[in-house]
Please model this.
Amino acid sequence: MRRIIVAAAVLALLALTSAGSALSSNVTVYITRTGSCYHTAQCSCLHSSAIPLTLTDAIERGYRPCKLCKPPALDEPVGAATAPTETIEVSVVRVIDGDTIKVLYTGKPESVRLIGIDTPEITRGKNEPFGAQAGAFLEALLADRMVLIEFDVGQRDRYGRLLAYVWAQGDGDPAPILVNAQLARWGYAQLLTIPPNVKYVERLRKAVGAARLARLNLWRDIL
Model:
């Protein structure tokens, strides 16, 4: 029940954000809560959710056209995802906050810190703006799911946490989506680059840029 409530809250938040931040009047397309593609209204990929927004807004946020329904396309969206090559499948135990999850890794619980991004704090006595929303967004995406984790050069931080890119299968997507970029794309995360873990830094930078341009969440008051 808790997961259903969280997912519903995230859907409502995304719908309000989409309605309020369209960059221009344009043809209407549809996205899903977990997908990285945009669709026509008749697309069979919209079985679980259908969030309307303009074509311009969809492209600015980094969504790419669905290969099944072939909606109109303007150009190559930022941060277009490609499937990773070396990953490990793990089970998500719980979401700790917007950029940290706990998974079962090699048979034991391990904390995973998402590489390349930083979301507002909701732990250690802090309650920063949009921290709770970032955590709810991540929980709606990942709670009780199997995901893929991908390591970069350094695999652990000074606290002993695993450092990873997290990939999850989105609705209607032939390949998994990069969750780190999804958080940035929706304006819940800033870029946090710590060498040598910089494999997807440009994709994350573009996702943050798209969120800033659309003034989503963390960036809504940025001029």
